[in-house]
Design goal:
It contains 4 helices and 4 strands; from the N terminus they run E-E-H-E-H-E-H-H. By secondary structure, the chain is α+β, with helices and mostly antiparallel strands. The protein has a 4-stranded mixed sheet. It starts with a strand and ends with a helix. The mean pLDDT is 81.
Length: 91
């Protein structure tokens, strides 16, 4: 479950620490953001920010990790051909 915290002028989109990679990418994409804090789902609601947040996840880091997992050049070519479909444009 994604949490949204609204401060006086900004909304903070949080990723729960038990979210899958697919859920994380979906939350980032849906909210058109490139990064978000990871909230520790085991931390109480009134926890300090140091206990509440584990780290920041970045879309670029996810992309780099995915690319590091691809070992076959054929897979890279398929990914490159498919990417414009997912981002709605041309490379």
């Amino acid at each position: 479950m994604m949490h949204t915290i609204i401060s006086s002028c900004h909304a903070v989109i949080e990723i729960p620490s038990d979210a899958s990679l697919a859920e994380t990418v979906e939350i980032l994409s849906k909210n058109k953001i490139l990064s978000a804090p990871i909230r520790n789902v085991e931390a109480p609601e009134d926890a300090s920010w140091m206990d509440k947040y584990i780290c920041i996840v970045e879309f670029a880091g996810i992309a780099m990790w995915l690319l590091s997992q691809v070992r076959n050049l054929d897979c890279i070519e398929v990914l490159a051909r498919s990417l414009p479909h997912f981002v709605g444009g041309k490379i």
